[in-house]
């Protein structure tokens, strides 16, 4: 008998939907090798004959023996690598723009060189750091900030999450955002002296969903999704209202306001039976709740969400 023992297992994703979503399973069969409960799973992408599978397993078991010695050293580049152990201390003071990612994520891979360049250009700026967290390794940190899709870009100020970035991912877009966040300041002087408190502006937090992050994003909590086409006039008119709705929902940790561009991700829209734009669908814990077909003004949308939020909170209390 092997020490430790080797188990060959299987999961039916039509039954254990939450478990499969947690491990980013988007196609079948997906084969993953787990060394222990905390280590990153290794996805198998080779041939599915007996010899190939056995060779893969033997390699994984061999690698496990000297994993610590083979661990790569921390990056010496401008992007700071954060872990479950050093994350809290790093963000405790100052401003920090942090990328939460997974190594297998295609969007993360495309963003990586731009993220490095952003860090390189801001390297001399002592007022901000550019960092990253591998969520396949440091799950506790990512879970604590409700990271449900990759990459997720969060800005922190003095130990607190200040904003989630949802804009373009070109270098210029990212630099402008950092500049904007650094220039935002709170003016807080005593009211008794005739002065007022001005809070930071709440930025829109609409999550763009795609083929890779759609299922994980809707897997937990309430997710209100706008399915749209960029050329659609009704969609264009709804866009600022949708941004406003995301601002008003920011205080609810279990609520996400999201969007899917059906001209880019037609498969998602087809699966959700989207036949016109915009189509607004509310999901709860990975399941469709209802199509929204009422007025699209901000008051109606907020009332709709508050009704469902209240229902969930009431159910949790019972």
TrEMBL record:
Highest rank taxon of the organism: Eukaryota
Key word Signal present: yes
Xref: Pfam families: Thioredoxin
Keywords associated with the record: Redox-active center, Repeat, Signal
Keyword set includes Repeat: yes
Record's GO cellular component terms: endoplasmic reticulum
InterPro entries recorded: PDI, PDI_thioredoxin-like_dom, Thioredoxin-like_sf, Thioredoxin_CS, Thioredoxin_domain
Domain Thioredoxin: residue ranges: 59-183, 191-310
MF annotations from Gene Ontology: protein disulfide isomerase activity
GO biological process, one term: protein folding
Family designation: Belongs to the protein disulfide isomerase family.
Identification of the protein by name: Thioredoxin domain-containing protein
